[in-house]
Amino acid sequence: MANFSLKITSHPNTVNNSLISQDAFNFLKELAKNNNKEWFAENKSTFKKHEADVKSFYENVKVQLNAHDEIEKMKMFRIYRDVRFSKDKTPYKTHFAGSFSRLGAHLRGGYYLHIQPGETFVATGFWEPNKEDLFRIRKEFEMDASEFRKVISDKTFKSIWGELQGEGVKTAPKGFDKEHPNIDLIKRKRFIFVRNFSDKEVLSKTFIAEVDKSFRAIRPYFDLMSDILTTNLNGESLLD
After folding, report:
1. For residues 9 and 160, what is the distance between their CA atoms, to the nearest angstrom?
2. Handedness of CA 35, 41, 42, 47 (dihedral sign)
3. Which residue in 112, 132, 130 sits closest to 122, CA to CA?
4. Average pLDDT, the chain
5. DSSP string for 71-134
6. pLDDT (tens digit, 9 = 90+) per residue, 196-224?
7. What is the number of alpha carbons within 13 Å of residue 97 lying toward its C-beta?
8. pLDDT recorded at residue 12
9. What is the C-alpha end-to-end distance of the chain, expressed in Å?
10. Count of CB atoms within 10 A of residue 51's CB?
11. What does the alpha-carbon distance between residue 2 and residue 91 come to, in Å, rounded to a whole number?
12. How do beta strands 120-126 and 191-197 pair?
C-alpha cells in the first residue's frame, strides 16, 4: 500500500492570485432573495462573469490537486435546479459547486467543493458506493478494521477533517453479525468527511491553499480505501 505522509506543507505552485470575490458572494445572496426567472434573466450577464471567475478558481484547485494526485476531470455543476420531483420549485441553486474525479480504476474516492455564503465546505470520500463496493468494504471491516481506525483517528487528520460522516442502516446488514465489534462501521452506507469554512476564510488569499491542504490530508484514507476496493480479502489484485 502506498505510504503517504500526513505532514502538510504548501505547494510552491500555489496560485496566490486565485480568489473567490466578495462580488460573487453578493450575487449569490441577491439570487437567494430573488430566485425567479425574471430577475435571473436581467442579471444573467453578471452571473456569467462570476461563473467564469469561479470556474477559474476550480481549475486552479485542479492544478494543485494534480501536483499530488491524478485527476481525470473537473466538473462544475449547473446553476439550474432540477425541480421535477422537488417541493421546492425555485429554479436556481444559490451556490457554486464542483467535483474532481481521480484517474483510473485503481484510484478511488473523489473531491467536492461547495461555495455558498455561510455554507461553504469541502467534502471527500465515498458518498454512495455501488453494492459491490459497499459489500467489499463491509467484509473488510468484518475481517479487520484496525488500519482503517488508525488512519481516521490520526491527530493531524482529525484536526482537518474531524469525524467520519455518512448514513447507515439501523440494524446489521444481511449476513453480518449485529454483535460484531466493528458493527458501527459495517452498518454504514456512506463514508465521507466534510470540512466547513467561514465566509472570512473563503474570501481570504489563503483559501485555495487551505482547500489543497485539506485534500492532501485525505490521501492516507484514499490510499487505504483504494487498496481495499482493488483487492480481494486475500490481498490479491482485482485489476489484473
Report:
1. 13
2. positive
3. 112
4. 92
5. EEEEEEPPSB---TT-S----B-SSEEEEEEESSTTS--EEEEEE-TT-EEEEEEESS--HHHH
6. 999 999 999 999 999 999 999 999 999 99
7. 18
8. 44
9. 16
10. 17
11. 45
12. antiparallel
- Single-letter code of the amino acid located at 15: V
At residue 18, the pLDDT reads 73
- Counted residue by residue, the chain has a size of 240
- By the 8 A CB rule, do 74 and 65 touch? no
Which residues face 120 on adjacent strands?
197
At 173-195, the pLDDT tens digits run 999 999 999 999 999 999 999 99
The model's pTM is 0.90
Cα–Cα distance, 230 to 136 (Å, whole number) = 10
Q: Exposed, middle or buried by CB within 10 Å (0-12, 13-18, 19+), for 218?
A: buried
**Side chain identity, residue 112:** Y
Q: Which helix (H) or strand (E) holds 28?
A: helix 22-33
**Residue 44 in 3-state DSSP?**
helix
Q: Give the integer Cα–Cα distance in Å for 112 and 74.
A: 10
Q: Is 194 helix (H, G, I), strand (E, B) or coil?
A: strand
What does the alpha-carbon distance between residue 217 and residue 6 come to, in Å, rounded to a whole number? Answer: 6
Quick: pLDDT tens for 93-143.
999 999 999 998 899 999 999 999 999 999 999 999 999 999 999 999 999
